[in-house]
Amino acid sequence: MSGATYIGISGWRYVPWRGKFYPPGLAQHRELEYAARQLPTIEINGSFYSLQRPASYAAWYAATPPGFVFAVKGNRFLTHMLRLRDIEGPLANVLASGVFELREKLGPFLWQFPPNFAFEPERFERFLSLLPRDTDAALALALRHEPRMEGRVWLEAGPRRPMRHAVEIRHASFIDPDFIAMLRRHKVALVVADTAGRWPQYEDVTADFVYVRLHGDKELYASGYGDEATERWAARIRAWRDGGQPAGARLISPEPPPALAARDVYCYFDNDIKVHAPYDARRLIEAVAESSSDTSSGA
């Protein structure tokens, strides 16, 4: 038994992709529809820069096929501006802004922290404790949104569903076994981030899923992934998906993760500058499928 694998791209509205990945003449409002038929998942980027509106989330839901999954990038107001101070209201605003319109297509939330954000255990513990673990808890928090959100909220969460969260860190102070233990207590994933060596890359498994972001193999946001790199990431994904850990994994904590027979894996390419991301994603999907086939056939 293996977990599910979702491999896709971070964002979809990129001018250089038009006429290359997107067919010439394709209307901009149909780009998501096109991308969602090439790939099974996309990370929503716009939610990082500003709160989106319910109508946008509803349109994105309608533009994508059954079984599609969105990851949602948490708003930078919490992580970069407030730096996790007094975030109860802003977090409620994020949850009230329309994410429930994604319904069963709502996947993990990604919370990315800036390179100058150091690990402060008490502040981070408070943040992790606020993150809702299911849509019922998320709705209860969303109902406490700030008054300025009136007229642009969606507060119908539908049937109770689990919610997942992942954190992407970029400061060396997080290289601390206590940080990994904290993530495991809260069942929040540590993002495995390939940043061409610019920021720390560690692969501790801290939740019942793994979240990977591939920002560029040699050059941040720009370089693509060749055959060797693609095969290497396919092997890692297969190990995580089967409940294990890749050989030679770079770890912060000497303690092993809780044993599981399988884990879901979400992987997003963010090397969009030179139009590598969608093609690299498709090649990795094929590589993972081929390695799975080889395994099942005994090859």
Provide a descriptive summary of the structure in words.
It is a single chain. The protein is α/β, with parallel strands linked by helices and 299 residues long. The protein contains 10 helices and 9 strands. The chain is 32% helix and 14% strand. The chain has a 9-stranded parallel β-sheet. α1 links the parallel β1 and β2. The chain is globular and about 50 Å long. The two termini are 18 Å apart.
Classification by helices and strands: alpha/beta
Question: Could you state the order of secondary-structure elements as H and E?
Answer: EHEHHEHHEHHEHEEEHEH
- Low-pLDDT residue spans: 295-299
Question: What is the CATH architecture assignment?
Answer: Alpha-Beta Barrel
End-to-end gap: 18 Å
At the first level of CATH, the class is Alpha Beta
Overall, the morphology is: globular
> What name is given to the CATH topology?
TIM Barrel
Number of helices: 10
What kind of oligomer do you see? single chain
Whole-number total of structural domains: 1
Major beta sheet, strand line-up: 6-5-4-3-2-1-9-8-7
Task: Give a quick precis of the structure.
It is built from ten helices and nine strands. The longest helix is centred in the last third of the chain and has 20 residues, at 277-296. Mean pLDDT is 95; it is low at 295-299.
Set out the fold topology.
Elements: E1 5-10, H1 31-35, E2 41-44, H2 46-49, H3 54-63, E3 69-73, H4 76-81, H5 88-96, E4 106-112, H6 121-130, H7 135-142, E5 165-168, H8 177-186, E6 189-190, E7 192-194, E8 209-214, H9 227-241, E9 264-269, H10 277-296
Parallel strand pairs: 1-2, 1-9, 2-3, 3-4, 4-5, 5-6, 7-8, 8-9
